[in-house]
Amino acid sequence: MSHTIVNPKGLHDPIPYGYSHSVSIPAGTGLVLISGQYGSKADGSVVSPHFAEQVRQAFDNLGVALAAHGLDMSHVVQLRSYVVQPDFEKLGIIGQAVHAGCGSLPPTQTLLGVSGLAMPDILFEVEAVAARP
User: Fold this and answer.
1) Total domain count, the chain
2) d(CA 131, CA 79)
3) How much is the CA Rg of the chain, to the nearest whole Å?
4) Is the pTM of this model over 0.85?
């Protein structure tokens, strides 16, 4: 692994929520930036009107983008997620998806509640920064 995740004592435990507080990346490590991925099929259409299915597909698409660089979710150091009308149920779905892809020590993540995304049918989008070993 080309990075170190740290969740300092004195801050709440973020792991159950699908993120970590900080990450350190050694000098000279290459970064790969992945633009926002949404729950799209290969033709760009939205996979489903259901939030959970869009999240699953968005993370699958993120995996495809990472694989194009020889990377996987274990290389992700930061996620930025955009959620239309966030609520606790949606946050739980996102946390489950992050844990499924990243395991027990997830990357840093910022989640932003938004009123809409690029197209009206899109309910979730995730972008990533990955560190190349």
Assistant:
1) 1
2) 12
3) 14
4) yes
106: domain CATH number?
A: 3.30.1330.40
**Each residue of 17-34: pLDDT tens digit?**
899 999 999 999 999 999
Lookup: tokens for 71: 């990377």
Q: Which structure tokens are listed for 45?
A: 């259409």
Query: How far does the chain reach from its first CA to its final CA, in angstroms?
Result: 6
Residue that has been written with the tokens 């966030």 in this structure: 86
Enumerate the H helices of the chain as residue ranges: 51-67, 88-102
Q: Do the beta carbons of residue 128 and residue 76 sit within 8 Å?
A: yes
Structure tokens belonging to residue 119: 């197209």
Contact 20, 6 (CB under 8 A): yes
